[in-house]
Design brief:
Elements lengths: L1 H30 L10 E4 L2 E5 L36 H17 L23 E3 H5 L2 H8 L3 H11 E3 L6 E4 H7 L1
Antiparallel strand pairs: 1-2, 3-5, 4-5
Length: about 180
């Protein structure tokens, strides 16, 4: 019994020290290398905090750019995807409903033109960004409602476009874009 108890006790103590002290310290240290030092990056507009830069928000009025759908209802405490596969009947109904809604609010757009990020939820359910194509396809609707030229809106999208350092994918933060409106 002693031959098994002592190694088990040593492993338990080592695991406690590693997972409650060393590992959290490593994660904290790596977070300190990020621009926000591991803290929330708040987005301010006209001196007022209007949201977090890295958490998606729901914009339902037609005068705003719409973000990526959320399977978590944009609730950061419940961050999650739908966990439904691409052949799941409920998932397909949700996507079709999003497509139908998008087409109603964006007349003149064909179903085949809708970027997938505008009708499918992200893995976290909180993605704050959409593709550049996702922003550009919404310009005619917003230009019509706000009576702003499409060229000016295209310029706003271009100004808000960021390229990710990993992979070089261009995205647009919806909150920043709507604040720029």
């Amino acid at each position: 019994m002693k031959t098994h108890l002592l190694p088990a006790l040593k492993l338990t103590i080592l695991s406690i020290v590693f997972f409650s002290v060393i590992y959290p310290a490593m994660v904290w240290g790596i977070a300190q290398l990020s621009p926000t030092k591991g803290n929330v990056a708040w987005f301010e507009h006209k001196g007022k905090v209007v949201g977090a830069q890295l958490i998606g928000q729901s914009f339902t009025q037609d005068q705003y750019f719409q973000g990526r759908p959320s399977a978590a209802g944009y609730n950061a405490a419940a961050s999650a995807g739908s966990n439904k596969g691409p052949t799941n009947a409920d998932y397909l109904k949700d996507v079709q409903a999003r497509i139908d809604t998008f087409l109603v609010h964006n007349p003149g757009v064909q179903k085949s033109q809708i970027p997938s990020d505008l009708v499918t939820a992200s893995g976290s359910g909180l993605d704050p960004d959409i593709s550049v194509q996702g922003a550009l396809i919404q310009i005619p609707r917003i230009a019509r409602i706000r009576r702003i030229s499409e060229e000016r809106l295209q310029q706003l999208v271009k100004e808000q476009t960021k390229t990710s350092p990993i992979g070089g994918v261009e995205t647009v933060n919806v909150l920043a874009l709507n604040a720029a409106l």
